[in-house]
Structure prediction request, 454 residues.
Amino acid sequence: MAETHTGVGRQRGARPWPRPRRIATISLHTSPLHQPGTGDAGGMNVYVLEIARRLAEADVEVEIFTRATSGDLPPVVEVAPGVQVRHVMSGPLEGLTKEELPGQLCAFTAGVLRAEAARPPGHYDLIHSHYWLSGQVGWLAKERWGVPLVHTAHTLAKVKNSRLAIGDRPEPKARVIGEEQVVAEADRLVANTRVEAGDLIACYDADPDRVVVVQPGVDLDRFRPPAVGRTAGRAAARRRLGLPEQGHVVAFVGRIQPLKAPDVLIRAAAALRDRDPLLADQLTVLIVGGPSGSGLDRPTALIELAASLGISARVRFLPPQTGDGLPAVYRAADLVAVPSYNESFGLVALEAQACGTPVLAAAVGGLVTAVRDQVSGVLIDGHDPVDWARTLGRLLPDVSRLDTLSRGAARHARNFSWHHTAAGLLQVYGETIVEHRARRAARLAGDPALACSW
Ligand code: UDP
Prediction:
């Protein structure tokens, strides 16, 4: 396994890698034009768009293929110079769930191949697929176009199934098989963290030489501590959001689904009332995001939960916020809670810290990397609301500890940026292109030892 972001990568600094002129990014099931924080749109959408922008700034054109889901958008949308989103007609525009999309793989792949066939030969130098459905498309396209395939899984079914939230549905066997196929066929597998790289190797038998860690980033221009200082910035953000200026705010931001476990935060607020009623009375739990089709059957379940626990007055809900509205949410909070059962990385945790807000997170998956325990936030083992209430009860009244964690959070977040991520990916792309060319040359020269496919 190699690591580029932190500079552990092979041949670091040895020679400049070739840079692709144009890459085909495949994001079948969700478009970077969708609002993240609801439905199937989340961190992957943010990742795809942020990376595309940074690559285009580095003179690498990016064409993003996604399934058409709206009649309002033209077939091709230029979102930034050098970044195009191409909508591929495959199945009805509305009404298909993510679980039904495997049935549209053929139609979608046909659309991608047709788009490439209309271009001059050798149009794309490389394919980068996101999520296993896109990996299946990339696998076929790679064989047709004779270019390498880089794949990022974003989530892994076997890992998710091993840590299922109560009420969540296990991922089907078809997805597990599909992921195994993509892992076997991709030239490089990009993992967000060492934990994910380890999962790819241990659970999917990935070849360690093809697994590379490139950490995601955060937009440090958008997500930054308030210029007026933490206290004044928090008050201003609360006024903007109509939240009480006094008292404590703990925010959850993200898609509302069992995997993300916003219910743990609500139950913790109720458990806090049993431990420390005065403190619990000063607490507002802020839930920001929309229902996600991939789990929560009843979007009103959290409202009902708060009512059944007798804490409706303590819980506020906000719809999904645009990127420009989110900094105020993070700054308004004393703590941002990320109680997920699993996270490939956890961009919300990073964004909150970049705004100077410490994070209380479950010690799972990428959150162990995204949050520095006791420095930029606190990691909690498990999802017992009593444990979460105990930590809230200890932290919230401790202003000086929160200030220290806040400074640690902003410092920790500065280790991440989308520029670093794009630089890491460019290295991976270059390496992969060189190896691919060498294998092709060996094949043409009839050297079976070198020409063997992975
Ligand atoms: N997000 C957003 N508006 C919201 C809630 C979330 O734009 O109301 C974004 C958030 O900024 C983050 C992404 O959705 O970049 C969620 O990414 P994360 O890695 O935390 O979770 P995922 O959705 O990938 O599971």
Notes: Residues 36-37, 42-44, 46, 253-255, 288-289, 320-321, 323, 326, 345-348, 351 surround uridine-5'-diphosphate (CB under 6 Å). The radius of gyration is 22 Å.
